[in-house]
User: Fold these one by one.
Assistant:
Number 1:
Amino acid sequence: MKLMGRRAWIVLVFCALFSVGIGALLGGYAKDAPRWATYPANRYFYSGGRLIRAGTIYDRNGAALAETVDGQRRYHESADVRRALMHLTGDPGGNVASSLQVAMRDKLTGWSAVTGAYTFPGAGGQDLHTTVDAALCRAAYEALDGRPGAVGIMNYRTGELLCMVSSPTFDPQKPPDLAADPEAYEGVYLNRLLSASFAPGSVFKLVTAAAALDCLPGVGERTFSCDGLLTLEDGRITCPHAHGEQTLGQAMTNSCNVAFAQLALELGETRLTQYAQKAGFGRRGLTLDGIPVSGGSFTLADATQADLGWAGVGQYKTLAVPLDYLLYVSAIANDGRAVTPHILRGAGDGLFGLWTRPGERVLAADTAETLTGLMRDNVLNNYGEGKLAAYRLCAKTGTAEVGGGKAPHAWFVGFLDSAEAPLCFVVLVENGGSGGSVAAGIAKTLLAQAIKLD
Amino acid sequence: MQGLPAMFAQWETAVQAWLVGLGGFGDLVTFVTRFFFPLMTLALFLRCLWPLMSGGRRPKPWALAETPDGTRLPLVHWENAVGSGKNCDVTLDDPAVSRTHAVISRRRDGWYVTDMGSAGGTAVGGTPCAGTVRFEEGDLLTLAGVELTVLPVEGDYDRPRQRRGLSGWAADAARSLKPGVTLLYLLLFQLTALAAFAFGAGAGFSLTVPVAYLMFMALECLYFLFTRGRGRRRIEPELLAFFLCGIGLFVAAADPDSLLKQVGAIAIGLLLFLVLTFFLNNIDRARLARYVFAGGSVALLALNLLLGETRFGARNWLSLGPVSIQPSELVKVAFVFAGAASLEYLLTRRNLIMFLGFSGVCVGALGLMRDFGAAVIFFAGFLVMAFLRSGDARLLLVGLAVAAAGAFLAISIMPYIAARFAAWGNAWAFADTTGYQQTRTMIYTASGGLLGTGLGHGFLRHVAAADTDLVFGVVAEEWGLIVALACALAPLALAFFAATSVRAARSAFYAIAACGAAVILLTQTALNVFGSLDILPLTGVTLPFVSNGGSSMVGCWGLLACIKSIDERHRSGRG
């Protein structure tokens, strides 16, 4: 029987295999249970694919953006607020992947690994308190006026997003028949601030400038000559017209392609790539309090000299998610440190609100200061500051050519260099024409409203 | 005068009204009991598993083998390998003795010795023996010149050392966990569950549920009293089975008729368990019956193939008048029985041909019925039993190769088989078609959390085959993951128990039967639990003792009898 006792290992092999299976079960549960539990067929939370049991989503002032009343999901009372924040709350069908009702449905439904879907009868899900201001978002939606685009306004001290609006959108309370007008609703489920990437255009000159300030000694004292055309061996860089002799600051204000292409060529692809990556282009895995954010891209692989020059002015293959710009200008405003963006109140408080992790250093402090000066000059010498005179508006426009005979994307990116209103912003209007006229106007209107918030 | 059914209905209405009148009290009961059940499950499992895992299984010797230098070695098994190898039960340290020289076996009518083809030969009383020779206690055995005398157990012998220290303490502590107290724990658990179920049901309350459930609990008590009367003390495997049955009854309770059927099946299963335990106690009797079992199995499967009905894609049902049975569930028991017994005088012959043929017929028949889950289960049982008997690792490889070839052949001849398993590992991509059952099981397993959402309230119940194939998910949803895992781990504990008990087994017959049965239960559990959660393909087998289904329940109790046969703790004196 000793012999047979030895042979009994085969039974133990079966036991071991079974234990591996149990391990796989527990591993799968630990990893995927929130996803399993919140699949829209779960009758604890959904009925006919529609969320029926979930907590309330509030804006920063405690206004209910979405709540469950009598087993029905009810959105904000104002149709424009509903449209403005559809990408944040989500739609009844759960189509917006980056919305709270999808990306945070495990929290919102109140599911937990210990108690599962159980709640004492009458209790609902967990509430979410967001950082956005419903009125400001509504104003942003109205300012975009139906044009596709995105608006983001963030407090660059705390990282709290006050405004996050994407267009086109629709009313989640009464979803229209999207198929009836596919052109108007193209990409309607995408939150353009987080999930779509665009050619950045001249806004990228802020990155090229940062690299030049760090790596090319005496660049601040140099002058750049522009006759409207820079001819290279393998192509050419053009400006709308000849800018003549300019300093770096004037070249920035003029948004001179020739000058910045020259700088890009002097920097070379290694250093330009390095600064683009530091600025966050092509970063992967960023999340906004758990909401996944897409990555843009920056590559100079197989680039010719002309490509390198165009990359220096934000054309070539570079793509940016609007949130990337918001974070980059937050670093310029914050003496070189980018903040971590937040959409949920309290998420950035750190350990009991006593300690917050300092933001990642993106720029040297003096580089950030010089860039601030250049952006301030842009406003003073070119864009104008309207009602924001007391708040030191610093900004950069972008007009990104998209080809195909379409009007360029209009960008306006910047911040208020002010302790009372530490706000940074990004405005994008797709095919909106010139950044200086379209996007800048929207930004100034919204900032005038935002500075009145507490 | 009112008839009994009318009175029954009247009471039921009264209780319903009372429960509804209590309002939110049912919610409160759920709120409290969902903490109670997992804790109680942990306590119960501790009380059942500790004694199972911690030794205390030191059989008394049948006789003593005295060597020339006066050493007295105990013969504790019915078959004792004698030789110079360290795997022998009686080790003779002499270079002339072969590694496995001979086998001394005890049968009903006396002692036998079988030479295992040794170089030095074996003699009884000076006469060289060929094959198996009977001898009397006191006769002189000569193994390649080494003399050995088998003596009755009197006086002193080399007792195995008493265990000390931590393991000795653990064994003592395990012995102090009285099964009677464990049964009281179990009854408390089940009564509380019954109350929670009733309060949760409210207006949907059915008086049949408590009536049927109390019948089941009475059965548990009767069984306990019966074992006490027979002087058997350790009944942990049965208590585990009762625990699982008790959980399963609440899954069946949604339909009072099927609940009554299930209680009946448990009663029949328990009866089979008792009969088989009694039957197995006498090896010679059991051995004689093997042809009956083997023949009966083949006949039942053949009948199934000819007259069977197809349900849920497999032709594995047989209607006998008002009852329909799944023959493969019952054949499992006969398979183990025949497999363990078909080796004539165990350890002494290595002829596997008969068992190979028998296994081939069984697995082949199941394949033809498209009951692939059962085919895999039988195959696992075959592998283990064949290996325990032959010790030949090549056999395992050949077996696996044949199985792989068979599976490949089946899939290439019948492509719809592959289609049935297309969703495997990718259920979410087919969430509302072929992966429907798996994804629903995952959804509601996760919805249950660790503590469950309350008995009888689950949503998974409404999915097809929830009470059989997806029962793990139903338990996880309503009782929580802790209790559901306990249901899955109970067969693992039994298999571990069987494997570690082999050394102390009286006879190789019990060792093979117990290991075969335990692996069959374990494989079935794996296919059910992992299949429903998309870790393995969903094959539609039952979860032992928990799933709703009469044939399965009876079959599981039969297999438990085979596992129990290796449990030497309850046997006293000569079996």
Number 2:
Amino acid sequence: MTASPFAVDALRQASGAAPSSTGNGNISSSSSTQRPGPGSATLDLVEQMNEDEKKKYVKGKKLGEGTYANVYLGHARHDPSLLVAIKKIKVQKEYRDGMAPDAVRELTHLQELRHPNIISLLSAFSSKDQNLNLVLEFLPLGDLEMLIRDVDRVRYGAPDIKAWMGMLTRAVWFCHDNYVLHRDIKPNNLLIAADGEVKLADFGLARGFADPGQRMTANVITRWYRPPELLYGARHYSGAVDVWSVGTVFAELIIRTPYLPGDNDIEMVRLISRAIGTPTEDNWPGVTKLREYTIPIEVTPVADKATYMNRFGSVGPEGVDLLMRTLILDPRKRITAREMLEHKWWRTDPRPSRKEDLPRKSGGEEKVAADLKRRPGVVDEEGKAKVARKLDFGGALGGGK
Amino acid sequence: MATEDVRYRQSSQYRLWSFSPSKLASMRETTNALARASISERMLASNSLPASNNPSAPTSGVNTPEPDGATPTPTPTLPEFLTPAEELMLVTLYTSELLRAGEHMGLTDEITSTAAALFRRFYITNSIMTYPPKDMIVVSLFFGCKAEGTFPSVDHFVKALHKKGPEEILAGEFLLCQSVRFALDVKHPFRALKGATMELRRYGDIEQSRIEEAERHAREILRFSPHMTDAYFHYTPSQIMLAALSLADRGLAERLIQATFHYVAPSTSNDSDTPMANSDVGTKEARREAKAGEDQAAIIGSYVRDKVLGTIEACRDMLSKELPDRKDHWSSIAVFKVQFRPTTRKLTKCHDPDRWDLVALQRRRREQVMDKADSEDGDPEARAGTGTAAKATVDSDAAVFGGALEPRDNKRRKVLDDPFGGPL
């Protein structure tokens, strides 16, 4: 893969053009053709490496423009059939402290995470205006949200759900196993490759969690997919937050509408309380101590399996069992991503669909662009108020250390 | 265990920032040579050379390339440049300053260590004669926070480190990011140390106080010695940890290694080492067992153990050259005067005339982009046809940077020697 640009290579190339310490000393050969200008455009080693990286790809038409990034179609110079999406991160004016957190996070984590179910970062380079460009694999078939919403034209069943859930769960397990929390799992961050493979994308809210003592912000994960501990303002949390999101995506895949579409945090707590159960000291020891815990007006007992079977029975009793475990209120009791992979649902009939048999629709490039240029943590509340509700992740994170 | 190794090999720290000692040395030489060349050129172009008020400036020889007619002999006015060895010495000096600043600001060990690693990476691809190390210390600390997932306000840094303004820090941020090849995740040995002490406790027969003392001492080493040497470029976090533990308490480190690589082949299969010779082993199970034994031996057998011991010994030697008791050496004014001042003086005379001021450089670069009026960033398709438009954009980009460089896409192959001595 083209994923590994090596400094060594660039250096070696560079040393060919420049005098080595014992060389013949033709100093100006490397830069004699430079136009002298206001900034003196002589090519530094770093600039040259960057140029090398940049020139591996040909930037094509703009697929979309957003507040956070512009997205271009591109292809590898050596192989025009190798399509890429070039995501050019815009300088964010409202963030005064340099490179914005989402760009840093996306870059940091995608550089490290290589997995078939995680979008791959092929390269990164800077354009002359000092903007960061991320070269990502091109995933032309849209996202899971498109498939979920197109009720009229897209039909799918339990085997398909099982296949998609399998891919999502593997991606999340891999993140957690590498001590990374994604913190924004939702259907439109699950992109679909040309071969049907689902890929987790958008690591703009991700963070490492190797140090258990560190405080983290509770203001993450798009609201409908946000677990109760975050709604209650927990500052110490774990992979369980992502698992809850996976559970709500699972539910949404089955019922084909968002499972817990709350308009605000208070409504979210109410919806969770009604659908899943009211968090109490009995089912979740310690919950009343969380910073933003509110005493419930009415207490609904935790939903039993029969209740779930009524609504989610199409994935069978094992599937419902897995769903229920992902939606356990107490994060400490919630199933982990690894345990999810060991669940018996995967091994009970029906078998998951093969990738090539999964339903798809030609997502169109617009959708690719829409997915990549979006700011993390934003709900596209279609059919609701057109105003995207966005997380205040910039400033809120500033204080936390 | 093998899988953890595979995973480490996927990390940017291994892929992009691990080198054999000879490779690292040649990179430093290349960077130094390039810097001399371009700084000479820029000095000559801008006439910013001090009018030979430098009596020690050489007229020819070691520090300037041979004038062989191709260059119009500007040598007499050029300053004396730093050698790669002098550059490395100064990078190490400023790394010690960075570590002190991190401590002064109360940053976590991880953040300060990340900052130090980024700083040292920065000065592999850049010469200390090109960009100012004192500014890059602050940039590295600031960006180290971000890379570790905390996003401090730049004003906090301005105040804590007595800077003039936020621009001074922000101007170098993108430069740093680009110079470290956008690889921001740095893997440290601290967590490995926690794991090792938990493991030592689990053995149950080692005095608690001994473990605690070793951990404390090893941690102190890890905060200093690996950054003051090239350890991060050559060794994995766990190797660095074991080397530090070995310096703190050799017995404990060896115990840990012996216990980990404990596999001893069952005596029956000892007579034949090659799998071929095992063909006479009758049953499938026996063969499978033999195969499993080989696998085990390949992962935790004595051969691997000896290899690991050798690697750790080498890392230990490296760390032992910069133990924490050398802190005083690096911060001593008396030592500075004798050992470093001549070189820092030299640096003030030979640094890059165009790039030393990061704020001005950043401003110039912005203006340049403004001049170009987003010829690059507009949608190429909107401006012209389709395929050719893209090509035109790229070509014009190339022109700005002085024409096409080398034929692209010559297959990049991985040229790292394996400095880690195979899978653990």
Number 3:
Amino acid sequence: MSITPKDVEHVARLARLELSDAEKDQFTEQLNAILKYAEKLDGLDTDNVEPTSHVLPIKNVMRADEKRPSLPIEKVLLNAPDEEDGQFKVPAVLE
Amino acid sequence: MALFDLRLQDVHNKLNNKELSVTELVSASYARIAETEPAIQAFITLNEENARLQASELDKQLQEGGERGLLFGLPAGVKDNIVTEGLLTTCASQFLSNHNPIYDATVVRKLKAAQSVTIGKLNMDEFAMGGSNENSSYFPTRNPWNTEYVPGGSSGGSAASVAAGQVYFSLGSDTGGSIRQPAAYCGIVGLKPTYGLVSRFGLVAFASSLDQIGPLTKNVEDSAYVLQAIAGYDASDSTSANVEIPDYTSALTGDVKGLRIGVPKEYLGAGIDPRVKEAVLQALAVYESLGATWEEVSLPHTEYAIATYYLLASSEASSNLARFDGVRYGVRAENPENLIDLYKKSRSEGFGAEVKRRIMLGTYALSSGYYDAYYLKAQKVRTLIKQDFDNVFNQYDLIIGPTAPTPAFRIGEQVGDPLTMYLNDICTIPVSLAGVPAISVPCGTADGLPIGLQIIGKAFDESTVLRAAHAFEQHTEHHKQRPQL
């Protein structure tokens, strides 16, 4: 499996990254090298092995569905690049 | 500098006897920073005004008497991916160059409760991705033992500032070795606790199933004290472990008689610098002389660990770093055409090369058609790697080997070659994948650069890890060596 510059463009789109031509070339080469290295995993038989997502035997940590105080709006908006009327402001989504 | 070489108990005795004040401790920290920072560059942000204010408050408390925190008055550095309310937290990224957190991480709250004084925020590889600090988007921190060399990473600032005597202790984070490897390169003690022991709430997430916060200190006793202060269940972290926290310092008995040590042959094989191997063998001889026994063991899936780690960590990172979109915090790109363009431009301008590379790798590994081949496969191999550790720990109390295959390398030596850079983590990554605790302690030098000994324990058995590390320290002089700055 080798990655083409076209694959890199596709993945960049998924990752919401805009790459320069130089970056595209570099990532194509480097990702190919890294994935080639990762191919060594193919040599292992894992048919009957369960995947590990977390080492702790913790599942579905629940808490009581009770109202709790949240951060005040002014504080939440403190780092907002742009805001209006207590909300984060972004460019228009609808035409 | 000598002030920060005192044992914690001695510092506290001096404070009690009025031979020393917190203001003097904090002033000593900033004086040392002024003196050494031009050469080391460990800090991104200093907290001087607040720290001095806090020092005078603590001095007042000292006068009045009453109960004091475990780390009372000790100058501390905090890695810049641990959020501190009102104190710039950049993750060494341009994306967060203006980010003033609106809350404290749980560990920061715990440090405040223990009454240490936060001196400033420490440099790191951007978003903790790297092993040299060369991926900081601000400047590379330098190794105090030789400023032509890297301090390691990603907690390079945390390690260098302790080694340079700028702070009494620091906090770092470890995903695949990011506390232990820089501790080894800088000749200090670095502990990665068991996954889940220390809350990750307020640690800017890189790879959530691996990230863990831990202390960097000049000796093992301090490591035990800091761990005591920061460990414990936290409902704000859903992967926090609800376990009883033992008294770690009481474990430091100096007695290792009868301990069974396994030494993985994979950690002393090809690719390991012979000087590192020699230092590790000498350390094992020390344990033998103290009544412990060691035998060669095998962690047969070690060779698959790096590939597994980079697939898993990058996948988790690509998901975690999706939050950086230029909407709620961070630097927003100017003049976006639309919302998608705002995301794209902000992320492309804000992230450095290594971060983009890992986001790309992770996005690819998780993308439709490749998920089973890469991500799921890596999760299965992780199970095999964890089983390697389980098997050895059925028969042994500890696993010991080197922390890193070589001492620190020169700045610039491995830039542009990510795969070689990744291979520096061969001895630390499997431990992270298994989630077990490990400490790096100084065990020698090569050409004036420190070598780290890695002591790995069973899950939640930090006590035995600390006990063994402390016993080694009691019978060797390596930890007393200081860089000439």
Number 4:
Amino acid sequence: MDRSLTKSLFMFASLSVTSLSPANGDKVFASYCASCHGSDGAGLLGPNLTDPEILHGSSLPEIKAVIENGVPAKAMPAWSNILSDDEIDAVAKHVRSIMGTNLVGPNQKGKSTVTPFPEGTLDRPILLRTFMPTMGLPDSVFTHHDRGEATPKYSPSTGTFDPEETDPVVPGVPGAIAVNFGNSLSYCFDSTECRLLYAWSGPFLDMTNYWGAGEGGGRKRFAYQAEVMGPPSFITNGPPFFEGTPQFLGYKKVRGVPSFEYKCGELEVSLLIEPGSTAGEVVCTYRTNANKPLTVPLPSGEEFEIRSDQGKIRKGTLRLKAKQAQAFTLTITPRTQVR
Amino acid sequence: MKTFTLILGLFASAISQLSAGSYKIEAIAVPHYVVPEVGGLGFTPEGELVVALRRHGILMAQPSEDPTDFPWRAFSTDSLHNPCGIQIISKDEIIVSQMPELTRISDTDGDGIADSYENVADSWGVSGNYHETNALVPDGEGGWYVAVGTASHNGPTFEHTRGTFEPMGRIGRNFSAVPWKGWVVHIDSEGNSTPIAGGFRAPNGIAMDQQGHIFATDNQGDWRGTSPLYHVEKGNFYGHPSSLVWDKEFTASVSVNPLQYYIDDFEQYQEDRTRAVIEFPHGFICNSPSEPHFDTTGGSFGPFAGQAFVGDIAGDRILRCMIEEVDGVLQGAVVKFIDGGIGGGTNRLAFSPDGKSLYVGQTYRGWGNLAEGLKRITFTGEMPFDLQKIALQPDGFRLTFTKQLDQESAGQLANYSAKSYWYKSHHQYGSPQMDDRELPVESVTINGNEAVLVIPGLEPDRIVELNLADTLLAEDGTPIAHGLICYTIRKLKP
């Protein structure tokens, strides 16, 4: 496009252009950027620049590159023909200075996934399927997984194997489903074992390892695994609740809350997991087609207490009559008050 | 707000001006809170565009003429695990292949928001490696073919894997540590799985043509001298050894270590593997092919009906494939359809219901240069001057063009040159061009919109690269748009 035409159009769009001191990044921002990014940078048509990480890279060189070259796919103009180098430098520094102030933009409805810090709310929990950390879960929890092992390191160029060095295995949950209700509760359900693995309160996940925080190499890391941000309030242990190989059937949303459906042998189970009355407390509502009494081995630990609204708990085992086993609720309460 | 719309509109038209004449390219604006990392793309029967994103579930919008003003709505905000395949059954029912399973996503209460996520099939394992992507194509009978990618040594495997861990499958650069990595798996409408063919590496795209042939692309790397387009047939081995650890017949009667077996015996490897329908020369034609997408528009999108378009994740281009049957096998040629102006990252393609536009979903997912977004290519109705069809002859090629040829320039031998070479698929990553030879173009005969080139010395298992000079003109004076043609010869014309 003709450069002078472009510039005059932008001047028209930005309404008032006064002589700008190169050092005044805030004035450059107000004149050229605020029309799309909002006067305080919290986003309007363009994205919110006050998040801790921004879409096309959070470092000063990355920000400058975006300003200079634009992002045509997102209608962000290239400013290199319009602003001077000093102005670009100043406004990039201004963007850096407002990043992390976490203002809520006028158009920001629901979650924003532009940052690697997704968030749900009590009303609208967010669900993510991704590789999750094991948080020190004991091996016994992975009954229906196979055991990976280190194998000899391979050189594709020579087609030979290193006699000593190996490709190691790392901890991780391959079929995880993570859910967040805001700061009150997050949890990790496993679609392979079909059980609640762990829960926490506070911030949800840092997805930088998988989603990245900027351009280039920063957008992936070796493990591609989410990082849990809050302190765990519950980590499971012990054998599976129900006998038989679990088969994950999927999940349904009940008022936006996922209800997991699975089978263990002939037993059909649905499990709805919701926040309790205190931070980190987990309420697990089970519905089954049980036609005989069930004994459920409960996880044990000093860090949490498990109550059932049905049946009796004796020596860490919940005993349910057939009728009780068709509908029961377990409440897992952290013993120490979680922040 | 009018001012803002004006700015966006200006930029959209600035982009479209980059693409000349026959095809207009527009950038589609997506909601500001979404990263447009497109893994699945298509249309509902009602004409709504459906976009599956890596982080942000599934968006829908009825396309508007203004590319910046689509009325986006979220069908699902669940972040699926690397959704890479999609079938749109209706506005209420969508099938997605994601890392751990094939999922049926439904809106059962009619509020426009998905509320049921049914696990249709999860017969493949999950090792904990990011590279294991799954693309799908419907089988036309209520089931699907899913192309399951291998893992990469740039990522790990987990201590606890879903599915059986096989150490002999774990070794290698790209590898198959858990079941059916590197296989095309058929899943029937009941969810029963049958693996049909192994030997794939990173098949980021599977499609069916109007005759029912299944095609899958694959990506250059180990055991891939250059990126291929394969015709997928039951029981074939497509050349990447690791997946054969899941072939009981192979491990019982040939070797428990297929990787080592084929490293040690290249001759046997050449004999056992199924060759590509088309090989895409690495670098100057394609770096990372994605989904093949057949032109089913019957001419609404221009003169290429029945041909396959293929995106390049790591190049600013879209390819066009012309496939023919020669002596019982499918083979053919690739030319560029869009060469610059579309941006990199082209991952998924979908025709608009009226057939006039090709929607382009882009992503790079940590591979290649940052390139994400949604674009639209629209046929303007102005006929391009391009190669429309190529047919191998016993001693050359018959080229059919989209326009009548200019007798004088088309008759000049100097406007044609040819050479041939091959790529070595082996344990090393990629391959240089092997045995690059000039081929003589002995004569050219022009008839209307056809040129018959006589090129003696053609050989099978080689690529013939034809170069048509830009001084080759149509009768109306238009120079040839894309003169670089690469034909993969599997069989000579009898």
